[in-house]
Design brief:
Elements lengths: L3 E3 L8 E2 L3 H9 L7 E6 L4 E9 L3 E8 L7 E8 L3 H14 L1 E7 L12 H4 L3 H12 L6 E6 L1 H6 L6 E5 L6 E2 L9 E5 L7 H9 L3 E4 L7 H15 L4
Parallel strand pairs: 1-3, 6-7, 6-11, 7-8, 9-11, 9-12, 10-12
Antiparallel strand pairs: 2-5, 3-4, 4-5
């Protein structure tokens, strides 16, 4: 955690001692009254928080805000709905990489039960985007959707820019050799891959197919590698 994030309303009251952020301030950062640390408001400015007092049940904090961080990068990540443990990794890592949107679609080869996981039904997914933002020293969180069909997600994408689908079997070229312009959409199938009908749909909607080399990667690894290469192609790194 390289920045401690707060919702705006949370800055108006003491921070409960049992909150993970309070434990981080006291046990990891080892701050004492009078010390300060990096803080931010979710989707708002960054600044410094000062630990004013440590009470039995809470921390009293003061805040001084500065500038807002840069906007998120023009990359939308589409992924066939994976196992919850895989989705958790993608949520955190793709947020840290700065994508502006993540869409977890119910692909034909997705397990329908994954959509009923507590990750999605309890709102737990947002905690993982917060962890990614805190790692990346930003306050910006991406748009996240889940449970929609592939066609509906594609329909909502901007008409301009690049559309690339990663595929181990039918891609004619490497992602590193694929021309790219912003905004970019990068689509990855679920752990069992795209179905023939989904490949047809992607092609009809303007997606070109690319691969990440001969090695078969885990979905969460392919997501990080793919987003990183798209960022490089768009001169964002």
């Amino acid at each position: 955690m390289n920045i401690v994030l707060f919702e705006r309303h949370e800055t108006e009251a003491p921070l409960p001692r049992q909150d993970r952020r309070a434990r981080h301030v006291l046990e990891v950062l080892r701050r004492r009254p009078g010390d300060s640390f990096d803080a931010g408001i979710v989707d708002g400015p960054r600044g410094r928080a000062t630990l004013l007092a440590v009470r039995t049940d809470c921390l009293v904090l003061g805040f001084a805000w500065g500038d807002e961080p840069p906007p998120l990068e023009p990359i939308a990540l589409i992924a066939g709905l994976p196992r919850p443990q895989t989705a958790r990794k993608i949520l955190e890592d793709a947020t840290a990489l700065g994508v502006s949107a993540m869409h977890f679609v119910l692909a034909e080869r997705s397990e329908p039960g994954y959509a009923r996981s507590k990750l999605w039904t309890t709102g737990e997914w947002r905690r993982h985007t917060l962890a990614g933002a805190e790692q990346a020293f930003t306050t910006r969180l991406p748009e996240v959707t889940f449970g929609r069909g592939l066609a509906a997600v594609i329909e909502a994408l901007p008409a301009a820019g690049s559309r690339v689908a990663l595929d181990n079997y039918e891609a004619p070229q490497a992602l590193t050799r694929t021309p790219m312009s912003a905004p970019a959409a990068l689509a990855l199938g679920p752990e069992r891959g795209w179905s023939p009908a989904e490949r047809t749909l992607l092609r009809e909607r303007g997606f070109v197919f690319a691969h990440l080399g001969e090695r078969v990667l885990r979905l969460e690894t392919a997501a990080v590698a793919g987003v990183t290469l798209v960022r490089a192609a768009l001169a964002l790194v």
